Amino acid sequence: MNIKVAVNGYGVIGKRVADAVRAMPDMDLVGVADIATDWHVRTAAGLGIDVFAATHDARTAMQSAGVPLAGTLPDLLDQVDVVVDTTPKKVAATNLQAYRAAQVKAVFQGGESHATTGHSFVAQANYATALGRDSTRVVSCNTTSIVRVLGALQDADLLARARGVLIRRATDPGESHHGGIMNTMVPEGSIPSHQGPDARTVLPNLDVVTMAAKAAHTQTHNHYWTLQLNRPASREEVLEALRAAPRIAFIRMADGLTALNTTVELMRDLGRPRGDMWEVALWEDVLTVERDEAYLTYQVYNEAIVVPETIDAIRALAGTVTDGSTSIKMTDEALGMRREFLPAPVRATTA
Amino acid sequence: MNIKVAVNGYGVIGKRVADAVRAMPDMDLVGVADIATDWHVRTAAGLGIDVFAATHDARTAMQSAGVPLAGTLPDLLDQVDVVVDTTPKKVAATNLQAYRAAQVKAVFQGGESHATTGHSFVAQANYATALGRDSTRVVSCNTTSIVRVLGALQDADLLARARGVLIRRATDPGESHHGGIMNTMVPEGSIPSHQGPDARTVLPNLDVVTMAAKAAHTQTHNHYWTLQLNRPASREEVLEALRAAPRIAFIRMADGLTALNTTVELMRDLGRPRGDMWEVALWEDVLTVERDEAYLTYQVYNEAIVVPETIDAIRALAGTVTDGSTSIKMTDEALGMRREFLPAPVRATTA
Amino acid sequence: MNIKVAVNGYGVIGKRVADAVRAMPDMDLVGVADIATDWHVRTAAGLGIDVFAATHDARTAMQSAGVPLAGTLPDLLDQVDVVVDTTPKKVAATNLQAYRAAQVKAVFQGGESHATTGHSFVAQANYATALGRDSTRVVSCNTTSIVRVLGALQDADLLARARGVLIRRATDPGESHHGGIMNTMVPEGSIPSHQGPDARTVLPNLDVVTMAAKAAHTQTHNHYWTLQLNRPASREEVLEALRAAPRIAFIRMADGLTALNTTVELMRDLGRPRGDMWEVALWEDVLTVERDEAYLTYQVYNEAIVVPETIDAIRALAGTVTDGSTSIKMTDEALGMRREFLPAPVRATTA
Amino acid sequence: MNIKVAVNGYGVIGKRVADAVRAMPDMDLVGVADIATDWHVRTAAGLGIDVFAATHDARTAMQSAGVPLAGTLPDLLDQVDVVVDTTPKKVAATNLQAYRAAQVKAVFQGGESHATTGHSFVAQANYATALGRDSTRVVSCNTTSIVRVLGALQDADLLARARGVLIRRATDPGESHHGGIMNTMVPEGSIPSHQGPDARTVLPNLDVVTMAAKAAHTQTHNHYWTLQLNRPASREEVLEALRAAPRIAFIRMADGLTALNTTVELMRDLGRPRGDMWEVALWEDVLTVERDEAYLTYQVYNEAIVVPETIDAIRALAGTVTDGSTSIKMTDEALGMRREFLPAPVRATTA
């Protein structure tokens, strides 16, 4: 029997999770809850998704605005096994009580603190520890990418120390008509930025320090890492370690993928929903290894990277799949995730 | 029997035309031709599209780069009824000779001059005059939008004179890592800008003057029009005239669609390929009519708006559908074009 | 005896007014008042400007932060003839009571409503009507430019009707790390935008309608006008009318001044304080006249254009100069305002 | 007797060097040479600077355009001791022959290779080795900042290894109407980027690796450094080392200087010509030291930072001042360079 899923909060992450749940063979999306009355939630209704009012006040406002409602959040929770909470920061802690009262398991997002649920989740790193829990937190987009990449090197017993600079997109493209930054960069005011410590909620032994800043673009973060290896290694060894971990895709400057927007354009060309990229896109031909130091840069599509992790977290809480790599494989196949975006070149033949 | 179609030039417009041809029930895409070796054309191969080398030099380079080739442009032309030429500006005039020699009908794009083919095309305005021709030119994105909107008012016998200000996106989002403008605007150096005269290649009686500028964004043009009506009219009369014409969709600030990027986000949410919008998106609740003057603003998704026109042009040249409105209907249904993007509000009921 | 002036609010406009007052031979800047404790107001102190706490709470905070204080706002008002209020919107109405109680005349800015003072001011249009008043409002940057340019054509009895599109910078360059818009445009939700009606607070007989939008840049607004003349006129007649009015400077695409940022760069090169441009910069070689219609575009440096008007308003309220054109001349000479930014070309000679 | 100086190339750097030379008590600007006919060079003429045609062809074009000419480049070289070559990249090597033939010493910019002159210059690091030479190269803006900051730590015998991420402004603000990048970042395709090796042309023992990218803004580069110290040190020790070196100014997030544009706004407020900042602006309160690692970020005003170095290079080649620190002091005083931009807070007193 399929896992019955609710999404509370139909925003940047929530709408993507809703679509991904609908794409999974072992899950049913029962509905989404929200408090808004604008085009966003009305679009959900147009896509055949049942919409529920998240609060009593919202119900009145949504009805007045003509949003078709299937009920309220309690009605939705009555029908589901797992709720994914993608409400804005700080609302979640309160919601958790309601979810527990309704005996619904809950997946939160990286805006919440680790303490709220006591468990932070990245599928490849700690799927097993989420089994049977009533709640977990999928870590943020930046932290997820760090765990994927540095975790891969840690798994290969190559990594001694990681020092990263995270250049973040300033705001999301659909929100960029307010709250943006223009023609500037905004460095974070303290070092380390929170992403380093946050990765240790999943990989406690990571020696990692991050500096962060916002730059004047709206699509995808861009990380730069200086890695101290625990021994001299070849470039191929580092690549092998990265290839052994899931959800890292390899791109190349030599193919003309030379800027953040080019990769985004490629996603659109591949027919991805919303042009989403769930993988960390790592520039293979920029990766440099010098004796016992490695340098690399990758791109994090912040709107989508946590979506597959959220799907896995649903399964882990539901307990329907006990093996993390099986869940990852199910998710990745259903979404169409890839390790390479371009077909391999054919061997040139004489004409 | 389906129309067999080639696309020469797999760029911003070409790749969209290729997809649209594949979506049409009465057309087959035989292949695309290009001269590049980078990710763009290799993506086409990955999507199951046959790729041909557009030139002899390109064939060698593409083979060396491992791009799988189905042949060269002459091979492609041998197999098709109509070629859509989406090569860069000024290459087209030369190509026309080759197409004529191969007895293939040809659709060009708005970057070419009217004189090259002697016919300029917007489906709703002059489909019939393209029937039986060996070539035509689909006018540019801006001109297409002008013909759709002003043509609608002209058809309703409402329009005396139109004065427009066209604020253009500076470059396309996939190209914006070179050639962009930053933190500025660039006004065109002469008035009228070319779009006004260009609209008269399709609607010769239009009294229109345009000023234009580039602004510092990458997605969609934004037009502002002051319209002198030929008599006092009500806002509803103007709206009716616009609703009577195809390919204009109505959006509303009141729904939260308040900026160019919000509409783009909506297209992504609707699951449109590449987030494309083929319609002119006109702000219904901004449209203002004062006695015999009307003021309006709309948004032109420049990467996609000419795609349905190109599809219609293929049919007109092929002569398989003799009635323009039938072709428009076929195209619009196959693409999923709409007049409203949001479902109509339900009547609020008592709870 | 010099006019003693206070500036209340040391922000984008206030700091420029303070500098301009210091540049005038007939004015003394007694001090500026503010409530902030950050670099902005501390810079003022470093420039030798006496700083006063605008409120009691602010005084405590400023003292704690180590801002050197010369006193509080009442102390400042005690010493001046005129106060220029450049506090944020809506604070002003309350302040007016305090200024009246202190018997200090007050100049407000365009963010306030006309009703607050009952008088709106642009020097070239209505200096005389401000003489002897206790307060006035210098209209906003956009409105000031409209009055300068359209007023010039009205004075020449050429203008029947003006329809404008105002593309505004989204936020100021010093503030652009929050509140900006990114990669988009935001059209105003209703037509006419407020600037048209606002210009009629100064020029009541103007037949003007404006549409407005914000674009993704931070420096200078850019206006596009379609002007219905009341008779056919030559381009030279229109230019003559514009040249007859003050504070319009002429720039040319042919000189390479082809974009908003180029003009800003020119101001920096001319050694202007902060790169300011007090003039409306009108593209002379873009101006087009067709029979009885004229089309033009100009650039409004929103951070500075109201500064000379504010200086004139000080004089008008103080009553020390009764003739507007005399005041304008004094202001313009002291600031170094110009009609042409480049030296006239020399006649080419044989070498 | 003052050093007689020419500037060949009146662009972003050249015009600033020209102004700085005019500000020095021991130098005379004889004139500038260029090949353009547009507003840029005509502005120079308006500022009272003699303009010379850099080539024979340019002379004809400039005369036709009405640019007042004082002669040609050979005429200019006849009258000077030192020429600063700020022509575009790759022109310089050819020019060097002409300068040598004219027996004029020459200062080149960082766009040229070290090999062209055989000497690379940063005043605080190697002034003495430039004495008596006929030419040198002032290293690029990024490299200059690296030598200032890392050199300071090396001088204090604190630095073992430096790993940096350089986020560059995409283009200059006056040029940003063409060639910009929009809503993206462009990582450099290879690691290390050239700035690290380039710093070793001045500080040969530096262990430094840099990664670089362009971000979507036009003013100032932003560097992030992870520094391996050769022993555990306190934050105050690191700060002391930085304070001991010249041309590093300290800014603080706590003062509200929280973004690249805020610092630029501060420069404008300080009355700097063109809003220039010649100092490296280092965030003092972001600097973090953990045992034997230090992390810091600073801002490089790329249009101006090499100007004081160029002035010192002129003196070194001319040989009029033999001590580097004396020259630095002369330069810095004449320009008004600072270590702190804000006045020190006053001790709060009771009111």
From TrEMBL, chains A, B, C, D:
InterPro entries: DapB_N, GlycerAld/Erythrose_P_DH, GlycerAld_3-P_DH_cat, GlycerAld_3-P_DH_NAD(P)-bd, Glyceraldehyde-3-P_DH_2_arc, NAD(P)-bd_dom_sf. Signal peptide: none annotated. NAD(+) binds at residues 34, 302. Keywords: NAD, NADP, Nucleotide-binding, Oxidoreductase. GO terms for cellular component: cytoplasm. GO terms for biological process: glycolytic process; lysine biosynthetic process via diaminopimelate. Pfam families: DapB_N (PF01113), Gp_dh_C (PF02800). One of its GO terms (molecular function) is NADP binding. Gene3D superfamilies: Dihydrodipicolinate Reductase, domain 2, NAD(P)-binding Rossmann-like Domain. The active site is at 141 (nucleophile). Residues 3-141 form the Glyceraldehyde 3-phosphate dehydrogenase NAD(P) binding domain. This is Glyceraldehyde 3-phosphate dehydrogenase (NAD(P)+).
